[in-house]
Amino acid sequence: MNKQEIDVKQKIIISAKKLFSEQGYEGTSVRKICDEAGVSLPLVSYHFGGKENVFLAILEPLEKLPFSAETGDPKQDLQKYLEVMMAFYQQDREISLIVRQELAMNSTRADKIITFIQNSTNKLKSILENGRDQGVFQFESISNALRFILGCMSMISVSNTGMLEVIIGEKEVGDYPIEKEVIEFIYKGIRS
């Protein structure tokens, strides 16, 4: 594949990601993607084979998150995991919005999304189980601990939309790093 083809594919992915995050999968047509990308309609079929494959290409980075190997120190492993996940969602807010929309709607694409994020969820589960076995973390239910942590992390991307600030009545977020507070909040919630 030459540079021009790579550029066209990248334009399509960038445009589709923007539109899927703003208008949802169902509200985004291939024509809208092409108009946003400034490319001709047949190029989506040529490069991806259709809208669903563009959608799947957008999710591929979820499979390749750079998790480090577990160190045996559950607190350190949890911190590294949370840093990687929050950095990813901060850098690619559109994917976070797309994932949340599709899972919340239980769309026909939800199973495909789950397949992409299963690796990261299994990593978190392993860290939590290791921490519980070592007596570092204390929680009654692994499922509830996972829900709690994943929910906290997903709120990072919501806060970046300004929606939470409107709900809680704040106009400014402040100078504190929210990621650090989220990590501390999660750790305090599950430590023994």
Radius of gyration: 19 Å
| Intertermini distance | 53 Å
What is the makeup of the main sheet?
Answer: none
Number of strands: 0
Q: Mean pLDDT, as a whole number?
A: 86
Query: Which overall shape is indicated by the principal axes computed on the Cα atoms?
Result: elongated
Give helix and strand order, one letter per element, not per position. HHHHHHHHHH
How helical, in percent, are the residues?
Answer: over 70%
Q: Strand pairing plus helix content: what structural class?
A: mainly alpha
Strand content: under 5%
How many distinct helices? 10
Low-confidence stretches: none
Helices and strands in order:
Elements: H1 3-23, H2 30-37, H3 42-48, H4 51-59, H5 74-91, H6 93-105, H7 110-133, H8 142-159, H9 163-168, H10 178-190
Helix pairs in contact: 1-2, 1-3, 1-4, 1-6, 5-6, 5-7, 5-8, 8-10
Concise description?
71% of the residues lie in helices and 0% in strands. The protein is mostly helical and 192 residues long.
Task: Characterise this structure.
It contains 10 helices and no strands. The chain has 192 residues and is mainly alpha-helical. The longest helix is centred in the middle third of the chain and has 24 residues, at 110-133. The termini are far apart.
